[in-house]
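Inputs:
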Amino acid sequence: MASNTFGTIFRITTWGESHGKAIGVVIDGCPAGLEVNEALINHVLKKRAPGQTPYTSPRKESDQAEILSGTYEGKTTGTPISILIPNRDADSDAYEPLKHVLRPGHANFTYLEKYGIFDFRGGGRASARETACRVAAGAIAQEFLKSHNIKTLALLKQVGSIEASTPFPFDQTLGLIESSPIYCPDLAAGESMMKMIQQAAENGDSVGGIVEFWALNLPTGLGDPIYEKLDAKLANAMMSLPATKGFEIGSGFHAASMMGSEHNDAFIENEGRVETQSNHAGGVLAGISTGMPVIGRVAFKPPSTIRKAQKTLTRTGEQAAWQLPAGSRHDPCVAIRAVPVVEAMLNLVIADALLMDRCSQASYSPVL
Amino acid sequence: MASNTFGTIFRITTWGESHGKAIGVVIDGCPAGLEVNEALINHVLKKRAPGQTPYTSPRKESDQAEILSGTYEGKTTGTPISILIPNRDADSDAYEPLKHVLRPGHANFTYLEKYGIFDFRGGGRASARETACRVAAGAIAQEFLKSHNIKTLALLKQVGSIEASTPFPFDQTLGLIESSPIYCPDLAAGESMMKMIQQAAENGDSVGGIVEFWALNLPTGLGDPIYEKLDAKLANAMMSLPATKGFEIGSGFHAASMMGSEHNDAFIENEGRVETQSNHAGGVLAGISTGMPVIGRVAFKPPSTIRKAQKTLTRTGEQAAWQLPAGSRHDPCVAIRAVPVVEAMLNLVIADALLMDRCSQASYSPVL
Amino acid sequence: MASNTFGTIFRITTWGESHGKAIGVVIDGCPAGLEVNEALINHVLKKRAPGQTPYTSPRKESDQAEILSGTYEGKTTGTPISILIPNRDADSDAYEPLKHVLRPGHANFTYLEKYGIFDFRGGGRASARETACRVAAGAIAQEFLKSHNIKTLALLKQVGSIEASTPFPFDQTLGLIESSPIYCPDLAAGESMMKMIQQAAENGDSVGGIVEFWALNLPTGLGDPIYEKLDAKLANAMMSLPATKGFEIGSGFHAASMMGSEHNDAFIENEGRVETQSNHAGGVLAGISTGMPVIGRVAFKPPSTIRKAQKTLTRTGEQAAWQLPAGSRHDPCVAIRAVPVVEAMLNLVIADALLMDRCSQASYSPVL
Amino acid sequence: MASNTFGTIFRITTWGESHGKAIGVVIDGCPAGLEVNEALINHVLKKRAPGQTPYTSPRKESDQAEILSGTYEGKTTGTPISILIPNRDADSDAYEPLKHVLRPGHANFTYLEKYGIFDFRGGGRASARETACRVAAGAIAQEFLKSHNIKTLALLKQVGSIEASTPFPFDQTLGLIESSPIYCPDLAAGESMMKMIQQAAENGDSVGGIVEFWALNLPTGLGDPIYEKLDAKLANAMMSLPATKGFEIGSGFHAASMMGSEHNDAFIENEGRVETQSNHAGGVLAGISTGMPVIGRVAFKPPSTIRKAQKTLTRTGEQAAWQLPAGSRHDPCVAIRAVPVVEAMLNLVIADALLMDRCSQASYSPVL
C-alpha cells in the first residue's frame, strides 16, 4: 500500500538512493526472541555485492550493515529492526552531462514524468542498490524460517539460451551453488554462461537470464485465499525486483501446453505424510502450500545499461545519444546478483505467510 | 492484507461460495460521480458465463448482478458499491460421496489442512465462480478508465501449443475477439484451438492456455516504486486467479535470451509525445507506465477437474480414486473463460494506479 | 485505509445506505471453526433496534440478518462471512423538500462538499443505520471472545448531567443492564434519565450522553506498540461512531488533575497472578493489556435531528430553515441505542488484538 | 496495521529505543516537489527537547536530525525520507538493579508479558523518546500543510485543575505560546501551572495535564467516512501517544450535558463561504471537515516515573519497591513536552487526509 513497504505482518520498509549517504531498511513485525546479529546479514550481503568476479560490475560495495534498533542481548525484541548500510564508492560526477538525457530502458523518464524531479545520480531510488536492503531483511527472515526447519535457496537457471540442469537434492545443490562464482549448480552449463557473459561484457553489451528458487519443508497451509495466495505474493515480490519481466511457479508457462491428466499431481502417502507423486503445482494448490517443495522461476531482462551508444531524446525532446561515461561500471548480466535477492524475497514471503497462518483457526496454543 | 480484498484505493472485497446462496463484491474507493448501472455489469458477466458454447462447462450461470448500494440517481456517490449475484443451478448432491477424497490438483486438501474445515460443495470458496465478482467490479473500473480515455482488452493467445497471431491495432483486434466464441482474434488459429479443446473434452481431459492483455492510452507515471510497481501489481492480480502458473510483461521470459542492445527501447518523438520505437518493456519502466501499450500474458494450467479417474487418497490416508460424478460439468479449457477475468483484473489494477498517482506530487488542482 | 473497512486481521467492511435496498457487512479474517448462526446475530441486533421503548425513535427496524457465506455446517470456514440486512419501513418522500437544505449538525453539507453528490434519503450512508452492520459483526467477534473466556459489556453511564453509579461486579451489572429499557444498571439514575429524555422528546429537543464499556479476562499482552496500542484502537473504533465527541480510558480526563503518586497502580499478587491494586490505567499500560479490566467511556452529542426549526442555508447559499417533516421520526438520545454498538466495537477491537498477538513471538504451537 | 507505522498515504514508520544507538523515522508518501531541510526539523525538535526549563526533565537531548534520503537539491522527490536522530547522554547503568522489578504505571510488565523480552534501558521502545521521530516527521507534514495555507498549533490547556483561557485569534495565540516556557498562551494561568509543576517536582511527584490543538483553513471535505473519519483518525493518532488517557473534539465530553437545540451549529454565509455560527462540532461533521477550525483536546496522565518509592513486585512475583535511581531524571509534567508532539500528530493526520481526499471524485486536474 505504501510503495516502499512490503509484507503484511513481517514487513519491511526500505529507503535510500544509490548515491545518497546511506540506504536502509526497517523490519517491523519480526517476532521476539529470534537470535540475530550483523554477521549473518553481512554474510548474505556479500553474495549480492559486485566487484568480486569478472561477471559482475566492478563497483566495490563492501557493504557493512549496522543494526540500529530492535535487538537486546542478541535477540529480537518485537520492536522494529532498523538496519543501515552506508554508501561508499559513489561517484556522481561522470553522470552529470547525462542528467537531462532519457536513458533507454531506465527509470529517469518515468520518474521525471511521475514526480517532476529525479535524483539521477547512479539511478537514484530506482537503482538496484535498493535490493541490498531486501537481502539484509531476508537474512533475518531466513533465521525465522530456519527455526521452523524451512530451507530455501536460489540459483542461476538460465543465461541467454543456456539452461542449467538441476537434478540434485537440496543440500547437494546448495553446495554446488556456493562453489560457482555465478551461483549456477550445473558447473558445465555455468562455464558456458560465464563465457557468454564475458563476451557480452567485451562487446559493451548485456544479456538476460532466469533465476530459480526452491523452498523445502514448508508446512501445509501457508498462503491465504483469495488475494493473498502464496504464489500471488511470490509473483508480487519477484516482479517488484528491478529488471524482471516474468514469473512462473511449478509447471509455469509450460502448463499451457499440457493436458490435465498429465498435469494433475496424484496424492500419495509417504512415511505417514500426504505427498504428491509429481509436483507440477510447484508446492501450491489454490494458493496454499501443499508441503511439497515450492519451486518457481523469475525472468530478468538484459541490463539496460550498456557501453554501446543508444539513440534517445533529451528531456526537452531533442535527439541525443546515451552512452555510459568512460570508466563507469555496469553489470553485464543482472541475473547473477539477483540470485541472493530472489532468495531474500522468497524468505520474506514465507516468513510473512507463516505468521499470517497463525490467525487462520479459532484455537491455538500460545507458548509463553 | 486481508485475503479477500484487492486494491489500495479502488479496492474490492469479494465473498461467497460456489454453492451458497449468493456471491458478491463490495467496491470501496470508487470515486463519486461515475455513471454506472447493472446493465453494464451484466453485459460483461455474460462473457464469463459458461454454458454458451461447446468449449466451456455446460453449467448454466445466467448471472444477474444486483447493485445494492453506492449509487444515487445512476451515479456513484463515493460510498461502497455492493453487488450481489445469486447462485442458481447448484447441485451439491453428486459430490457428496467425494467429500472425504483428496481431489488432485484441487483445493480441498490445502483448505482442510489450513482451516480444518472445507465447504466442498462445488469447490466452495476455491471455485472459479468467485471470479464473477471480479468481473462485476472490473466493469465498474472500466467505466472509470473510459472516462480517462484508457482502452483495455484481453484475448486467448494460446491453447496447447497453438499460438494466435495478433498483428492488428486495438479496435480491429477487439472486433475479432468479439466475433470469436473463444475470444481468439486469430480466427484460423482459433479454429484449431476449438478442435483441440473439443478433442480434450471428448477424451474426458483438459488443456492449458495463455491469455494476453493490452492496455492503451495510459498516462505516463502510473505505478509506484518500489513495491507498488505497476507490473508487480499486475503479476499479483493475475497470479491471484485460479489455475494460473505464470505471468509475464512485455518481452517476458523471452527477455532472458535477448541482448541489452536488442532489448532497450529507443526513445523517439511522435507528434510531440515521447514514445519508444519498440516496446519490449511492455509499457512499464522501473514499475511506472511509459505511456506505451501495457502488454502481458498469463499462463493457465489445464483444469484439474477431468472425467478420467485419478489415483488419490482419502482424507484419512486410504487409497482412493477421484472421478467426476456422472452428469457433472467441467471446463475443458479454463483459459477461455479467464479472458474476461484477466481483463477485469487489468482494469482494477489500472484504476487503482490512476487514483494512487494523484498523490504523487505536492500540488494538484481539485475539480470542484 | 479504506474508509468502509475496520480491523487488521479480524476485519469488517460495511456497505449500504439508510433507504437503499439493504445494508450489510463482510467479515474477513474470522478464524475457522467457530460456531455461529443468524439467531445470535439477531439477538444482539434487537438491542440496537429502535421502536421498542418511548426513549428511542419509533422507526420500526425489526432487523433480520441473513448469513450469505462463510459458514458450513454451522461453523465458520475461514472464508468471508457476508451478512445482509434488508431495509424496511423506509419512507424517503417526506425528506424530498429538504433535499437542498443544509441540515445543521448533519452530514449533507460535508458529503456534498466532498463528493459533489449525496444520497440524502434518511441520511444515506451517514445514517446511524450503518451501525447495525457493526452490531452484527460484533456478535460474531463476541463468540470468538467467549471461546477465550473474555467477557464484555456496555452501559449507559450518563444522560445530560445525570450520572449512573456502577459499583457492582460484572455479572450483576449485566443483569441490571438487561432489566433496564435504556441499558442503565443504576435503576434510580435510570429513572431520572428516562424522565429527562422524555422531556426532551416532548420539547422537540434532544440530549447527549455517555456510554461506558468493560472488558474482563483479557490475557496480558494484547495491543501492539506504537501505533496499534489497544487504547488507540479503541479510541479509533469509538470515534468512528456517529455523534461521538470524546473518548477516554481508565482515569480519562480526570487524570489531568491527579498526581503521579495517586495515579500509579501498584502491582500486587492475587492467587498467583500479577494484578494491580487500583486500575487508573483502565487495563492498559503502554498500549498493551495488563489483564485487569479494560474500562472506558464514549461521549455522544445530543442528536442533531430535532423537531425545532433551525436556521440554515440552502445548498446554493440562500437563507432557509430546516425542520423535521411532520410524522418523521428521530431519537431524542442517541446514547441509548449506542450501547450495543459500543459493545460491538469493543468486541471487534479485542478480537483483532487477540489474533494480532499470535504473531508477537518467534515460537508458538499450532493446534491442528 | 504494522505497529510502528502511522498513516495511509503520508505514512511514517518509526524505530529505535531510548538508549540504543539512534532513533529514526522513514516518511513514505510525502509528495514530490516540497522544499524541506534539516533546519526546519531541528527547529521543531528543539521545542520537544527536555533540559531547557525547570519544568521538564534535565536529560539533555540536543537532538540533531539528519536527512539520509528522499530529497534532491533541497526538494522531496517522492521517495522515502529517512531521518536519523542519534541518541546521546544515555546512561543505562543506574537502571540495572531495577531490571527485574515491575515499574508501576510503566511498560516493562506488559512488554515482558507480550514479548518475553524487554530492553529496559531508559524505557526502551516504550520511552517517550520515540515521539521525537513523530515531531521530525510532523515538521515535514507541516510544510505540506503550509503549501495549502493550513495553520496548526497546540497549547498547554490545563495542568492539575488549572485551566488556561484561550480567547484570542490564531496568530496572537501562537505568539503567546512561543513566549511561554510551558507553551501556555494564558500567561497568568501559566504562572500558576509552573508553580504547581515545580511543587510536584520538589515533592518527587508528578502532575497531569491537557493539551489542546487547533487547525485552521482546512478545506471542506477532508476525512473519509465511515472508518477513516477525520476525528477518528485524530483520536487514534493522539491516543497512540504515551501517557494519554482521553481525547475529545469540539464540545467533547461536555456535549453529554447539552441539548440538541443548543449544540447544533447553524449554517451561515460569511463573505461568500458557508460557515457555522458556533463550532461545537469542532470543525468536523460526519467525520468530514466543514472548513471551520478543527479543535480538540488530549488528556495526559501524571508521569508514572516519580521519585517517591512505590510498592510493586519483581518479575518473579516477590514483593519489591521501585524507586528512581539517585541522579536519574524525570519529567514532572509530560503534558508540556507533549505540546509539539500533539501538533506533529495533527499535522500528520491532516496531510494524510489532504492526499486521500484527492481520490474522492471521478475527475481531477493533474498539475504537471
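The interface with chain C takes residues 1, 9, 29, 31-34, 76, 78-79, 144, 147, 219, 225, 355-356, 358-368 of chain A (CB under 8 Å). Flag for discussion at group meeting.
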